[in-house]
Amino acid sequence: MHGIIFLALQDFLEERLGPDTWPRVLAASDLFEREYFSDGTYPDAEAESILNSGAMALSISREDLLFQLGEHMSPGLLEMGHSVGLVRDGWTSMDILENLRNIFEGFVSLNPGMSFPDIRTLRIKHGEVALAYMSKRRMCSLIKGIVQGMGHHFSQPIAHTEPVCMLREAHLCRMSFYLNDPSLLRYVDIQREFGLIHERIQEISFFNQFKGISISNKGLVLRFTKEEVLVQVNRDQLMAMKLEGGTYIDAPHLRLGLEAKVKEVDFRQGTVVLHRITLADGALGQREHSRIEPGEPIEVDLQVEGRPYHGTLLNLSPGGVSITLDDSTGLDEMMLFAHAWVRFAIPLKWVETGDTLELGPPHIEIDGNLLNVGTLGNSSGVARILFAKLSPRDQNMIEQYMNKRHDEVIPELKAMVAAAQAT
Q1: In whole numbers, what is the pLDDT of the chain averaged over residues?
Q2: Nearest alpha-carbon partner for 373 in 213, 172, 98
Q3: What is the reported pTM?
């Protein structure tokens, strides 16, 4: 463990409990008169012993101590990062998290003998960064405290989720840090908001997906109560709502979109009862890219850190691809955010390239990162790959295939609507 941690812990404990605290904590750890220096490296066992003694002195848990220590260290770490040029001017919390690995590597190059944990980060969107942490030290609480401290420094409230944690017997910690504006409550006063819409006789827009194709139409509010709303809308939209079990709503007077669940659909009347209405995560609550489901099996070759895999395309978008793997042995959360390469053929007979047509199917090879690994039904594994920046050619090919699938899928949806009206 690097000496900076010991000195920060000393400063933190003395600030909380007084200047005579450090000798007492050292004595309780059987480390009488031990000295630590900022350029030194010391046994992890000594750090653990001091952490446990410090936690007892504060009457808190080891994890609470690490979290509070992280908050305490954060301003100093930011100042240090700026002073050596590893943290750029203009960066805020999400920018620093995105570049955390490079920052750590920079500290190591400036401090020979220093080591750092295996931390991998990936910027999911402007206000969210996913982080994977692997270390036998299991100090994930320290990371969370440092991030919380950064949020205070930049006046950016930050929240996090941690579905996987080494403290819960996992092999790694997987966290997601995101900007959290407490003013954006998810509660919706249905009578007020939909009362305004009904009073003004305004149309509202609905957004759904069917096999990855975006379905959007306008509708009218017929009536409402404190808990639900009856609306009339295009029957294609009704079918998409029913299949998804919900919908997203864009109301003219609201800055954020709404998310609603379907309670009851009447195809003959062209109406749907919506309930459990909350604020969505954005203006429309939609994905950045639609994910198209292929109409026929598409074989995919995948490599993750040079290890080959084979599977079938589950869905595709300009942002990434999901693959059902024939055998996912060796592919797990430990490879999170690792470099990935995919190759597959897009089933297009002809491809437009400028003013000419080329015979298909075109093959696409794209670099990216492994975003997650999961399961689907009886499948051995499903890998989701986030693409790096697409070339104009690849972008063009994927968009042409998405348009082709749109022309194939919409008639399917209309046939389902006709069948529903006939029953």
Answers
A1: 89
A2: 172
A3: 0.66
